[in-house]
Design a protein that fits this description.
- By secondary structure, the protein is α/β, with parallel strands linked by helices.
- The chain has three domains: 20-96, no CATH class; 110-173, no CATH class; 201-417, Vaccinia Virus protein VP39 (Rossmann fold, 3-Layer(aba) Sandwich).
- Helix content is 35%, strand content 17%.
- The radius of gyration is 30 Å and the shape is globular.
- The protein starts with a strand and ends in a 5-residue tail after the last strand.
- The structure holds 2-acetamido-2-deoxy-beta-D-glucopyranose (NAG) (2 copies).
- The site of one 2-acetamido-2-deoxy-beta-D-glucopyranose has 7 residues, from helix 3.
Length: 422
Amino acid sequence: MGSVSLKIGDGTARFRRATICTSAVNGLMLFSVLTTNLFALYAFTYSPSRNSSNNLQYPLHQAHKNMSLISEQVSLIMKEIETSQKKLAQMEKELLGYETIDVSRPNTANELKKFLQRHSLPLGKDSKTGITEMVASVGHSCSKSMEMLSQYMNYKVNGQCPDDLSVAQKLISKGCEPLPRRRCFAKTISKVGNLYPFPTSMWKTVSDKIVSWSGLACKNFTCLNAKKVGKDCGKCFDLVNGYENQRFVKGRGKNDFLIDDVLGMGGDGIRIGLDIAGGSGTFAARMAEKNVNVITQALNIEAPTNDFIAARGLFPLFMSLDHRFPFYDNVFDLVHAGSALDVGGKPEKLEFLMFDIDRVLKAGGLFWLDNFYCSTDEKKRDLTRVIEKFGYKKLKWVIGEKVGAGKSEVYLSAVLQKPVRT
Ligand SMILES: *[C@@H]1O[C@H](CO)[C@@H](O)[C@H](O)[C@H]1NC(C)=O
Ligand SMILES: *[C@@H]1O[C@H](CO)[C@@H](O)[C@H](O)[C@H]1NC(C)=O
């Protein structure tokens, strides 16, 4: 709330501004604390005219007494307001679960302090933006993983970064996103002689040697292909055997739509797209064959996903789904997503994601929901409700059952067209 982020040159600057809402709440709190205390003061100082004759005899003395009593009370009230405000702020913080990053803690990496240092603008306040200082951009949830963050920021400046891709990934999964920048050289992997020209690269087996296995249980693709990585990626790194090389061109059931059919629904307007949790990038590869440029969002969970997608000559986007998409409004012709939309938690969590998908999709663009696994009726209802709310045109809508793990599972596939809203 009240923090705006914008790019300046190659860095990110931020400024904070109390919103009208926060000041209004603060004002209201102050007012209520004041009135409560004034009532208390009144009740405290007011006494029925028991000794009124006595009081009349010593009016000056009484007035003095009254004044000192009042000033004593006022200072008490001020103290109470102060502690109430502090308590309120603390409660608010605890309620949200966010604390500000406290770099004064012992064992805080020096590099973290340096990175977070604020720098005043040399010419004072910028008249256009109102910014007064440059602030490094780092996820506020990083404060919840201070120890790990300090570990991440503990390295030799100008030297080689530690082999800690798994730490970075863990931090991101805990909401520490974006990560702070570092002043060390990331480990390089030689890809010389192991990459193919595009578009051949899209279907060539990727060598074990050109991806990083740091922090992963498997250390080669033989191991990886023997296990299921996530709901949407069953052996998805095996581009030769299995189903991966048939996905989107040959369906296994009525829930599997084919690329040509879906592209036909979008007319000629499909040129760029976003694939959410796109596994090994096969959707982007099939789309590239149709001259559609797709960017694949993926984390390296259990697999060297980003390296793999890049090796295929496709564009990987390393970020979690908790992060606002780093794209402008109304830019994509197509967004493709599957079971990754099941973000868990309260229905609002799904709404935040769906609204962001809606935001980056242009009017008339397609949202392809591909085999969303409805683990419960509630999941299906929540998702359907959000879709209904958006008023998308249902070009295709299929609810099918598949037998998985011995029991029947319900899947929802749909092609939806974003309406023009006025
Ligand atoms: C002092 O306070 C008493 C009530 O506690 C009131 O009756 C009295 O008039 C006050 N005296 C002056 C001079 O204000
Ligand atoms: C792949 O890794 C596994 C252990 O993860 C190992 O046992 C196996 O020998 C490796 N295979 C190849 C071909 O390197």
